Amino acid sequence: MDYKNLIDPELRKSAHRYPFNKGVVIGGNIYQTAEWRFIKTPSEVEEKEIVLQGHNGLSFKTSVFTPKEAGNNIPALLYVHGGAFSYKAAGYQKKLAVIYAKMTGCKVFFPHYHLAPKYPYPAAYEDVVLLYRYLMTHAEELDIDSKRIGVAGDSAGASIAALLCNRWEEEKITMPCLQMLAYPVTDAHMDTESMKKYTDTPQWDSVANAKMWSFYCGEDSKLRELASPMHSRLPAVMPETYIEPAEFDCLHDEGVLYAEKLIAAGVDVQLVETKGTYHGYDAVIKAQIVKNNIKERIRFLKKGFEKGGNYGN
């Protein structure tokens, strides 16, 4: 299908299709490592790194972005980057982390978690949960407010963030004060209409999505359900949630269905269905549609942090 005239004009130049396989992932990760280092953090934000022991005691790094004028005891956002559970963080995701820190006055913790296929599920999830627990138990030392810790993610990162929120009781952690999910991966069953329809969309499609799940969980159907937020048993209380599906994305319908699942469970959900967009469209940060949708995300984050996020914990 030709999507050229359907996609927002400012996004069209970046609306390319890419193969997804182990060789592409290796090459992509070399490039993205260099890109991350090349992008400078603006002077208004301090960047540093912490190292923790996560999955099976293995070390992983977390980048920390702190607005210099933020003050003390500030909110924190654990932002889990996407990349098919396989790619390292992209430069635009670093830029987004900085924007969230600057515009909300929060401290952003950005984990560089263990990646598939070398480290399949639950490695990335365990890294992220350990980081969240570290934020809880070291809040005073980190100068963050333990009642205002939110989680966010895009694509596969949104899937990990969602699982953390679904399991906060069984993990014996404090419930996050909010969750923000951009074009989330939610269901390994891959049986929605958008999954059947979008086999050739820019950036990401259902063919690549099937390979992603194979890298992450193999062919174990029970493991795939465990890794799918859609199949979680939800706790009685859940954080306020923002879900932003992209229009021309095989993941569109599962994002909407996940929002409906949460709403049916009594969760306060803001569903923002973007138009003229494809998976990962916010890499074009200077496009007006991206700027507008980032403003929506910022409004949601500010609102959630202002509430303080106690929610009955």
Question: Characteristics of this structure?
Answer:
313 residues; alpha/beta; Rossmann fold; 8 strands
For the sheet with most strands, the description reads:
8 strands, mixed
Please give the CATH architecture. 3-Layer(aba) Sandwich
Order of helices and strands: HEEEHEHHEHEHHHEHEH
Low-confidence stretches: 309-313
The shape, in one word, is globular
**CATH fold category name:** Rossmann fold
| Integer-rounded radius of gyration | 18 Å
E-strand count? 8
Please give the domain count.
1
CATH class: Alpha Beta
Return the structural class: alpha/beta
Cα distance, first to last residue? 49 Å
User: Going across the major beta sheet, what is the strand order?
Assistant: 1-2-4-3-5-6-7-8
Commentary on this structure:
49% of the residues are buried. The protein has helices at residues 22-38, 91-104, 123-137, 139-142, 156-166, 193-197, 206-217, 221-226, 252-264, 288-307, and strands at 45-53, 59-67, 74-80, 107-112, 144-154, 178-182, 240-244, 269-271. The chain has a single domain (9-304), classed as Alpha/Beta hydrolase fold, catalytic domain (Rossmann fold). 37% of the residues lie in helices and 18% in strands. It has an eight-stranded mixed β-sheet with strand order 1-2-4-3-5-6-7-8, with helices on both faces. α3 packs across α5. The chain is built from ten helices and eight strands. The protein is an alpha/beta fold and 313 residues long.
